[in-house]
Amino acid sequence: MTALTLFDLVIRSMRKNIKHYYLYFFALIFSVVLYFVFATLQHDPAVVARSGGSMGSAFKVAGILLLFIAGIFVVYANSIFLKRRSREIGLYQLIGLTKGAVARLLILENTLLSAGALAIGIGAGILVSRVFLLLLMKLVGFDGFIELTFSNTAVLQTVIVFIAIIILTSIQMLIAVRRTTLLGLFNAEKQGEHPKKPKAFRSAFLALLGMVLIGFGYWLSGRMINAFLLINMLVVLATTISGTYLLFRVTISWLFYQVRRRKQGHLGLKGSLSIAPLMHRMKGNANSLTIITVLSAMTLAMLAGAYSLYYSTEKETRSVYPHDFMFGGYGEQDEAVEKQFTDELDRQGISYQYTPIEALNLDGKFLEETSSTKWLGENLYANIISVKQLQQAGIDVDSPDAQTAYFYDASVYWMMKTEDVPFTVQLRTEQNELDVTVTKVREGNVINLPFAETQLVVDDAFYHEMKDRFINEEEEHRISNFNAITILDSDEQAEASAIYHDLMDADDRITFDYYSAYVLTMQTSGLLIFIAGFLGLVFLVSTGSILYFKQMTEADQEKRSYATLRQLGFTVQDIMGGIIRKQLFVFGVPLLIGLLHSIFAIKAASFMFMSDITVPASIAMSIYALIYITFCFLTVGYYRKTVKAVF
């Protein structure tokens, strides 16, 4: 056989199978586009310079993760296509092609398809890179114009990594053709499971065990914050994955068997087209459905977490830095810098509010042992502050009852927010001690870092009582005087922050102010949601496509059944009723369980957030579910075409 004839066969085969390849082709192009964009942003000098190098490293890691996702998708999809085309491969051997020739034909076809996707993907990536850059700049809050330069390095890097994937799939095809027999190729599509009657006790035990493992993982996810945090995370992951596998492998199969037994095998048309095919393939699908469910949950948790961080950036930053600027604690040197700063604000015409805040610094300890004190230890260093001074500074704080205190500490709020109140804190010096009842644990700080420590807010009368009790000539050092500055016009915060940093840089000291912290956090969370969003989208497209390809294969395998049903007088609508039930299971169950897993995963990780993340997490999950359901509709559409075509 000449090379031209072999090439003709490749072109003819590609034309014939284009209806099967289009979604795979699109997913591959999408992966190439995103990888090329990430590589371009990774190597672009303007982006790297603007971000201080952090974005280049982030996109390098993102590119590796994307390559990992795309590689698994391509290999898995390729294995489905090889099984789907087993009869075609057998026919090639029947007409005289050797296994080597068949392997070359498949490799050449795969190379042409992948090369086309690579070329289109890089071309599309060049066109949309600017759009992605603008989106990134919007998310991280960068102002101004950044000129994105064409990167030969990005093109070369993209070509190399996707050539590696092509080589990997070519080896996969070569091994598959070499290992199969002609009879095996013709019978590959007929291979299925013959479900046996499950052993009652064993199946019931394993089915129940799967539910118990998932339930235990959910229960433990809400009780992870203790000295065994890392172990708890591993246990939650292990029990959830094991329980999910048992759910698909045993529990659902056992439930299907019970349904069939109750109906004495008479499932009816819809049951025969939904329950029966699922029972025959449940063992083979258990691994893939488990992997898809668990990875979907992780992806959802990642997306929801990233969006939640971005969504709550301003509130979280303000919780840590309640005042725009704060001076104090560095003696005369600090007073000099503070005067320079306020003088420059006056000179620039920037309006501000200036408020002195006095704090009483005392050693203390928790009197009750709790889950938090096991981590934090029983000792603490507290700043006692009058609520009246904070209210004068414009901080929205409630006044505690007389002789009680509110607890503030942004650094440990994630742990303390679940603490039972009231609890008692003992404050002391060498000469005196006093037990103070904490009635509420509040979010954030009431004074800025680095001065914050633990803050106990009390009413004005109690503050002066404590001051009279603890402070004498020997203890005057325990009084700290801070000066809070709040910029009255939010549009002038950037200018004020620039003045502040100019002075602090000249003073060679670590700088802390609200606006610069907000900008830095916005850049980090914006970059995170940009990367997480697109990695999640690639994963979603990949897993949705895999489920779609598997259902395409099953639809073709069941053509004879559909033809028989049509000949018996059943309409397309009658047949589609059972098929839709099946697709609701195939797509709906992994989605619902994945959503449930992600809810508890986000709940377990909620200690990282000081604000409520219900809204951003719900938005991320809704978008994910909507795209996932789209694949379900595509699959139902393919089945409908298949059923219509058989008659």
From TrEMBL:
Compartment list: Cell membrane
Keyword Cell membrane assigned: yes
Record's keyword annotation contains Phosphoprotein: no
Transmembrane segments: 21-41, 61-82, 112-135, 155-177, 200-221, 227-257, 289-310, 527-549, 584-609, 615-639
Record-annotated ABC3 transporter permease C-terminal domain positions: 61-179, 534-636
Pfam families referenced in this protein's UniProt entry, alphabetically: FtsX (PF02687)
InterPro entries: ABC-4_Integral_Memb_Prot (IPR052536), ABC3_permease_C (IPR003838), ABC_permease_BceB-typ (IPR027022)
Membrane topology, from the record: Multi-pass membrane protein
Signal peptide: none
Superkingdom classification of source: Bacteria
UniProtKB keywords: Cell membrane, Membrane, Transmembrane, Transmembrane helix, Transport
Family: Belongs to the ABC-4 integral membrane protein family.
Annotated protein name in UniProt: ABC transporter permease
